[in-house]
Automatic annotation (TrEMBL):
Database matches in Pfam families: ADH_N, ADH_zinc_N
Source species of the chain: Lepidothrix coronata (blue-crowned manakin)
Family: Belongs to the zinc-containing alcohol dehydrogenase family.
Keywords for the protein's UniProt record, in alphabetical order: Metal-binding, Oxidoreductase, Zinc
GO BP terms in the entry: retinoic acid metabolic process; retinol metabolic process
UniProt protein name: Alcohol dehydrogenase 1-like
Residue span, Alcohol dehydrogenase-like C-terminal domain: 194-320
């Protein structure tokens, strides 16, 4: 696809252009990297709400600012940044609420198929291509609003910290910020992809004493154990529904459960697996657009809490630089999630690996 390179004059105020170098070896240190997340697969399958085709997917990435529009003050050309698939405008009522990381400029409340000025900066053979979540990280160059980019430490390796743009932060934050996992508690994580394994890391970091990892692909169990899971269960090996198995294993159900798959059945199973009185279930996986879930209200009546979260509850512009600093201080090792590093030309191979359950995270290098 011909991803047009954007001349500086085309930038609008408060926009930022980010670049990676494709083949120029003189600039080989200035890589841009992008991770492949299941949300990109949902997009390709046409299941992502409000997306429009043709589109440049990708929402997990890291890059270097190429140029800035008039009025941009928070980043300069040459600085390392992470584009934010979930922006933080800093001005809306949700951004001003210290308890919330939802920004009213997010894709649920504002279309992000075009930039805020309703233009697209991508073309192919004269035809306009849509943006995805304003970031479109599967491109050598992209243009993003200033409030959808966070400056990060210049020492950060872009081919590693790109995961912090979505997958790692989403899972880790679900445990730390949303569930607020307490030391000594019991947790169950449904789905051991990049997101679910990051939940495992978050539960471990929060001091959970029992971390039960659930997946239908037993090949994921070794990594889950390496990251802190104490038990691994394949629901297909169980004679009873997984919620009953987990309840029996823990007495009254787990303290915290997390759904990191994006299926109705596992969302209900995760909810039913947590303690009926004080359990907290965090929904992280995304359902197809237009999906509806029906559930027995008794699951909630006795006191369980069912919560949803986007990007792990982090206020993204404020927190992304801090997460990168924590990475550099080795407070967590998100590198363990990277199973494949591929040149961008192998993007389709990256999706095949994801579909076949053979990868956790594939990182594409430009
Ligand atoms: N029961 C248990 N595990 C399942 C089931 C099931 N019925 N179906 C799929 N899985 C497992 C897969 O085997 C895989 O290991 O769920 C995992 C999903 O991992 P990935 O495909 O790598 O997805 P990931 O990128 O981690 O995203 C997970 O979070 O942000 C959202 O949109 C994202 O909904 C997606 C979810
Ligand atoms: Zn906002
Ligand atoms: Zn994602």
């Amino acid at each position: 696809m011909d991803r047009s390179l954007i001349p500086l004059s085309y930038l609008q105020p408060t926009e930022t252009q980010i670049r990676g170098q494709v083949t120029n070896t003189f600039l080989s240190k200035q890589l841009v990297a992008a991770g492949i997340c299941l949300t990109d697969e949902h997009l390709l399958q046409g299941c992502f709400p409000n997306a429009e085709f043709p589109v440049i997917p990708g929402h997990e990435g890291a890059g270097i600012v190429e140029s800035i529009g008039e009025g941009v003050t928070s980043v300069k050309p040459g600085e390392k940044v992470i584009p934010l698939c979930h922006p933080q405008c800093g001005e809306c009522s949700f951004c001003l609420n210290p308890e919330s990381n939802y920004c009213l400029k997010s894709h649920f409340t504002e279309p992000q198929n075009l930039l805020p000025d309703k233009t697209t900066r991508f073309t192919c053979k004269g035809k306009q291509i849509h943006h995805f979540l304003w970031v479109s990280t599967f491109a050598e160059y992209t243009v993003v609003p200033e409030y959808a980019v966070a400056k990060i430490d210049p020492a950060a390796p872009l081919d590693k910290v790109c995961l912090l743009g979505c997958g790692f932060s989403t899972g880790y934050g679900a445990a730390i910020n949303t569930a607020k996992v307490k030391p000594g508690s019991t947790c169950a994580i449904f789905g051991l992809g990049g997101v679910g394994l990051s939940v495992v890391m978050g539960c471990k970091a929060a001091g959970a004493s029992r971390i039960i990892a659930v997946d239908i692909n037993k090949d994921k169990f070794a990594k889950a154990k390496q990251l802190g899971a104490t038990d691994c269960i394949n629901p297909r090996d169980c004679q009873k529904p997984i919620q009953e198995v987990l309840t029996e294993m823990t007495g009254q159900g787990v303290d915290y459960s997390f759904e990191a798959i994006g299926l109705k059945e596992t969302m209900i199973a995760a909810l039913a697996s947590c303690n009926m009185n004080t359990g907290i279930c965090v929904m992280i996986g995304e359902l197809d657009a237009g999906s509806e879930i029906s559930l027995d209200p008794m699951l909630l009546l006795t006191g369980r809490a069912w919560k949803g979260i986007l990007v792990g509850g982090w206020k993204t512009r404020d927190c992304m630089p801090k997460l990168v600093s924590s990475y550099l201080e080795k407070k967590f090792n998100s590198d363990l999630l990277i199973t494949h590093t591929l040149p961008f030309a192998k993007v389709n191979e990256g999706f095949e690996l994801l579909r076949a359950g053979k990868s956790i995270r594939s990182v594409l290098l430009f």
